[in-house]
């Protein structure tokens, strides 16, 4: 059996360092755009740097690993993209000073692991690209999967404030990092390695009949906001859902700041990616939530890079999850 404590330690270190580098790149957004003359380039640089650092840290601590990451190195290897390669190398060296071009590209490609293994890591180096570009919420999401289920989750949310009174659409100066081993509870620390020891997180029970505070994607292409509105009207909502990018939504429900995260399908054939949900699902579960698809099925991570047998997402504490699934069925949305 895997040494979960050792794996978690390695995963935490990896996500902490990747989060630091993402924050640095975000601070230098204008500079990166100027070098590459492209609004998308800061994401590109941070995406590759984040994946390289996570892969490097995991291999350093654990030896060879199976890592299924969202990115590959083909773009950076292209001769025309030397500027991006240089910018990514400079970003990585913040926490990995000995990196060179060869080790950088090799580390990125360590993410080309085969998800048909019985156990593997999966990584979204920057989840919520649009949020990253807007200077709002994004996440570095790493999970370890065993036989189709996440058993370790590390979710770096570099811009997420830990205080519920701070606005969610602005970048916090510390950010939050959540980590968990299945069955051992959920923990929160600052994402910038500063401050207090880990804090145990578990949702408080709701008062029966309290209105439901929901959250959903900012991007209308990722979740059908009209459907969410119809469902919330049925179950008794507290008003407009809070909109934020990335798996930070799972954390926001896990810590009790919202009562539901709904992801209603916008396209018939869209298959959710495993790295978009693995870490977030475990974070929410360990915080006291139920996570299923819109049919009430558990998420099944044993079908390659996609959640082939699932559609959409419903994440909520048990007393909210049931009524939401009921509303989805009654409205004919599943
Ligand atoms: P969010 O920040 O919650 O809107 O989710 C961002 C993620 O949405 C990205 O990582 C994409 O993988 C994913 N995505 C892209 N297209 C779609 C789609 N049509 N439906 C649902 N998710 C999508
Ligand atoms: Mg993503």
Low-confidence stretches: none
Helix/strand-derived class? Answer: alpha+beta
Bound molecules: adenosine monophosphate, magnesium ion
Biggest sheet: strand arrangement = 1-2-3-4-5-6-7
pLDDT averaged over residues: 95
Q: What's the number of extended β-strand segments?
A: 12
Terminal CA distance reads 38 Å
Portion in strands: 15-25%
Radius of gyration over all CA atoms, rounded? 19 Å
Strand and helix order = HHHEHHHEHEEEEEEHEHEHEEH
Shape: globular
Major sheet: 7 strands, mixed
Helix content: 25-40%
How many DSSP helices?
Answer: 11
Fold and architecture overview:
By secondary structure, this protein is of the alpha+beta class. The chain is built from eleven helices and twelve strands. It has helices at residues 4-27, 29-36, 41-62, 74-77, 82-92, 101-109, 129-134, 225-235, 248-254, 278-286, 318-330; strands at residues 67-69, 119-127, 139-146, 149-157, 176-181, 186-190, 199-201, 214-216, 242-243, 260-263, 290-292, 313-316. The longest helix has 24 residues, at 4-27. It binds adenosine monophosphate and magnesium ion.
In short:
This protein has 334 residues and is an alpha+beta fold.
């Amino acid at each position: 059996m895997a040494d979960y404590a050792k794996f978690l330690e390695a995963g935490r270190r990896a996500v902490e360092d990747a989060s630091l580098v993402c924050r640095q790149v975000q601070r230098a957004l204008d500079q990166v755009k100027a070098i590459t003359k492209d609004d998308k380039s800061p994401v590109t640089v941070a995406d590759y740097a984040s994946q390289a650092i996570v892969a490097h840290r995991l291999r350093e601590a654990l030896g060879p690993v199976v890592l299924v990451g969202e990115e590959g190195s083909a773009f950076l290897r292209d001769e025309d993209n030397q500027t991006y390669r240089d910018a990514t190398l400079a970003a990585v060296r913040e926490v990995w000073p000995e990196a060179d071009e060869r080790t950088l590209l090799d580390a990125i490609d360590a993410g080309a692991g085969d998800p048909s293994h019985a156990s593997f890591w999966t990584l979204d180096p920057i989840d919520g690209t649009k949020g990253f570009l807007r200077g709002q919420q994004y996440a570095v999401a790493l999970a370890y999967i065993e036989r189709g289920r996440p058993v370790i989750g590390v979710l770096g949310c570099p811009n997420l404030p830990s205080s519920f009174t701070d606005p969610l659409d602005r970048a916090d100066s510390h950010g939050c990092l959540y980590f968990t081993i299945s069955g051992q509870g959920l923990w929160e620390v600052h994402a910038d390695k500063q401050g207090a020891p880990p804090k145990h997180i578990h949702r408080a029970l709701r008062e029966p009949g309290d209105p439901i505070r929901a959250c959903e994607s900012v991007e209308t292409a990722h979740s059908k906001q009209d459907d969410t509105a119809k469902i919330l009207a049925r179950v008794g909502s507290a008003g407009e859902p809070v909109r934020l990018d990335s798996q930070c939504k799972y954390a926001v429900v896990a810590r009790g700041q919202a009562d539901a995260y709904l992801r209603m399908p916008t396209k018939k054939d869209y298959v959710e990616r495993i790295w978009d949900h693995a870490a977030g699902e475990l974070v929410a579960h360990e915080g006291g939530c139920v996570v299923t698809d819109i049919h009430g099925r558990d998420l099944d991570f044993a079908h390659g890079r996609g959640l082939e047998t699932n559609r959409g997402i419903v994440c909520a504490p048990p007393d909210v999850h049931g009524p939401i699934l009921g509303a989805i069925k009654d409205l004919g949305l599943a």
